[in-house]
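Possible regression after last week's pipeline update?

I re-ran a chain I had predicted before the update to compare outputs. Posting the input and the new output here so someone can diff against the archived version. Not blocking, just want to make sure nothing changed silently.
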Amino acid sequence: MQPEMLNTFQQGDHDLLVKGDSNHIARQEFVKSLKGAIQQQMLPAITTAYYQRALPNYVAENGAPPENYTQARVAFEQDPLFKAYLSINRSSQELQWFSVLDPLEENIDALEQATKNIKPSGGSLSLEPNFEVPKYISSIDIHCMPGGYLGPVGAHPLHAGALYDRGVYLYAMGFMGPLNDDMGRSVVNYLKRKHPDLKPKKILDLGCTVGHSTLPYAELYPDAEVHAIDVSDSCLTYAHHRAESLDMPVHFKQANAESTDYEDGSFDLVVSHILLHETSQKAMPKIFKECHRLLKPGGLMVHADLPPFENMDAYMQLILDNETWYNNEPFWTAMRNIDQIQLSEDAGFNKADVHFDTAPMAIMEFMNAGDAAQNDEPEDREFIAGEYAPGGGWEVLVAQKQSKVA
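New output (post-update):
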């Protein structure tokens, strides 16, 4: 269950969470505060510099403003303030992981012991000894995380999962909520609002990492059987024990979302959360086709991520494109240039049954509960550069598989 958010921006404890001693925590809080200062204080100055200095100069030289992130980078890349922003932002990302690595390595034996004291909740874990991890995952330390999703070679089986659990909380500056589950919780809230008749019996979460976004489905659809897959054995091992410690029964399995061994029509709902920008351009069409195959007639596919670049101006594109340039996110920008509506249609969905929408962040709705209670629908939000989830919402691609013709 979600902890009471008396202090929204402190991570909720559970049996597997590694924070360290007071010195470690102080360092981690410094990193979180640094990231907040970059977003809340430095980025507004960067934005001003772009619009008041770089943009007029570019227009004077080219006769028109930048049309996309590539042209915006040309306009801004030599600006000293922009260079400082890029350098400090990258440093904060590296500090984030290092602030968690020391206490993790010091407490890894205690972490393993903790798994032995967790009471089973009915979930399961299935790993494949000879599993082949896609190169687009194994060949890079994604978002500068040491060892990436797989962890360093020879590391403890819980290493990558434990590092990610604490590290991603710092990255999000608390905006994922106490259990880092805001994205999954936001999507479930969205589905209950937009598809109130949806009563899924079986749910599949693709690319679940440590199950942050998976658990809200087990909590808020208590009658459903929840499955979750990932390619990382370390993340899955941690995810299983974490879910059990939180008394959330989920069936975790090592599998590639491009091709699973579940039977056709196994699920009423197939979801993913920030998975697509971690996959290659060759993998995405396969994932969409697999989603269509796995869904029962009338079932829903929902992919939650950040929006396509076509929904943003050139400056906003540039700020997000920095993830590709400076944060080891090679598919971040490429994913936003892919026509996902067409991919869905190519996978077998009817174009009329596919659309983008915004799932408001659950944590924002929680903090604005009094205002939201007065409205049947959350207010529309504009996409704003620099927010963890631009505009306070997650972009969701929703597609419904055609029902069988009677």
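Follow-up from reviewer: compared with the archived run. The CA atoms of residues 175 and 241 lie 24 Å apart. Marking as no regression found.
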